[in-house]
Amino acid sequence: MNARSAEEPLLWLALLGFAPDEELAIWSALEADATAACWRPGDLSTANACLVHGGRIEHLGDSRFDVLAGPPNQQSVRIDLQEMSRPVAFASPVPTTLQVRHQFSLEEPEAICQAVSRLRGGLLALRTRFALGREIVRAGPSLRHGAFQLLGADGNLLAQLDFRIGRAALSQLLTAADVEVAKWSKTGTLRDVPADFVVMATAELSWTYAKHSEVDLLPSSYYERPVFYRGPPRVPLGWLSDGQLAVLTELTANPQMLEELAARTRMPIERAVAALTPLYFASAITSSPSKAALEWHRRVGYAALSTGGDPAPSIAPENAEPPGFQASTVPGALRPR
Fold first, then answer.
1. Alpha helix segments (H runs only) across the chain
2. C-beta neighbour count of 239 within 10 angstroms
3. Where does the pLDDT of residue 6 fall: very low under 50, low under 70, confident under 90, or very high at 90 and above?
4. Which residue from 46, 138, 52, 34 is spatially nearest to 98, judged by alpha carbons?
5. Could you give the CA distance from residue 128 to residue 279 in angstroms, rounded to a whole number?
6. How far apart (Å, rounded) are the C-alpha atoms in residues 296 and 253?
7. 103 exposed, middle or buried (CB, 10 Å; 0-12, 13-18, 19+)?
8. Is the pLDDT score of 126 beyond 80?
9. Most-buried pick from 65, 133, 249, 295 (CB within 10 A)?
10. CB-based contacts of 40: which residues, under 8 Å, 6+ apart?
């Protein structure tokens, strides 16, 4: 594959403890900074990073603290920095008893932008998955049933992707910039995975791209035909938003047209599409009745017909569970039977 112009991922930023005028000041500063164009407002459950108002922190000892409510529609939030899986920065003043890495002044737009830029720098793994996912999605069916090595300029191994079993192994040193110029080499025999490589499902890569891309990647058939539940998404359960869980709960009961699904989950069409798109790349949904979950076929007595394929580029073997996915942790309605 040839080097491509970089597409930056959309990122979601949660603001905790800020008053409405302070939130406006933050977003105004970011809108004036071209390098911050990738950020969108998000809540703590789905955000990639967060800013916390240090003046509204009640320190509970060690790395734990409460963020007291800011705007009228916010609630107090309890946080343990040692358990935080996303980068965070604090608007000063921060309690002197709480040790934090990044502080900034709300009075200085440039300081706000610098703080958010540091947060983006803490998302290197996400940006790498995004870059690889972009290449997978763009290549589409040409990768299906193949195995590939991603090689650097000096021939060093950067990643292995085996679409025959839906597994990927990435060097911890791999970056999005490496992906832009790496050579993809198709092979029938993959090397043993080095001990320091990170193993994941190939679906996690295309999911990351689908979730963070501005491009509409959902095939037209999902706008025109009923959407069916296909199986448990091949990504860690914690990656699913509340909206995606609601979508899957609805689809496990019955296939639905997009408009009906949006209405039943109380989402605008745009949000429903945003929820469905990563699920499509995780092989959790289909617009083809012949690929719907077997339970639905048994329920309606459907004789499978070929109605065209869903061109998802990273489909693992039937009943395979990628690393990080545990069927036992899935809500009852979503567990494979």
1. 20-31, 109-121, 124-139, 176-181, 202-212, 221-224, 242-253, 258-264, 269-281, 294-300
2. 17
3. low
4. 52
5. 20
6. 8
7. middle
8. yes
9. 133
10. 10, 11, 12, 13
Cite the beta strand spans of 54-116 per DSSP E: 57-61, 64-67, 77-80, 88-91, 103-104
Q: Which residues contact 85 (CB under 8 A, 6 or more apart)?
A: none
- Residue pair 69/44 in contact (Cβ under 8 Å)? The answer is no
pLDDT averaged over the chain?
A: 86
Q: Which two tokens stand for residue 158?
A: 């950067």
Residue recorded with tokens 């190939």? 202
Element at 162 (helix H, strand E): strand 157-162
d(CA 321, CA 333): 17
Residues paired with residue 331 on neighbouring β-strands, in sequence order: none
Q: Token digits for 241?
A: 């938003």
Contacts of 230 (CB under 8 A, 6+ apart): 283, 284, 285, 286, 291, 292, 293
Q: How far lies 266's CA from each of 43, 208, 256, 262, in Å?
A: 18, 24, 14, 6
DSSP bridge partners of 294: none
Six-digit token string for 53:
């108002």
* Full set of structural domains in the chain with CATH: 11-122 (3.40.50), 125-204 (no CATH), 216-334 (no CATH)
Q: How far is CA 320 from CA 190, 228, 325, in A?
A: 19, 20, 10
Helix (H, G, I), strand (E, B) or coil at 63: coil
Pair of tokens at residue 142? 């040409």
Instruction: Give residue 300's pLDDT.
Output: 61
**Token pair listed for 126:** 């996400």
Which residues 6+ apart lie within 8 Å of 303 measured at CB?
none
Q: Is the pLDDT of residue 336 over 60?
A: no
Task: Give the total residue count for the chain.
Answer: 337
> 0.85 cut: is pTM over it?
no
Please report which confidence band the pLDDT of residue 153 belongs to, taking 50, 70 and 90 as the band edges.
confident
Residue with tokens 């047209």: 257
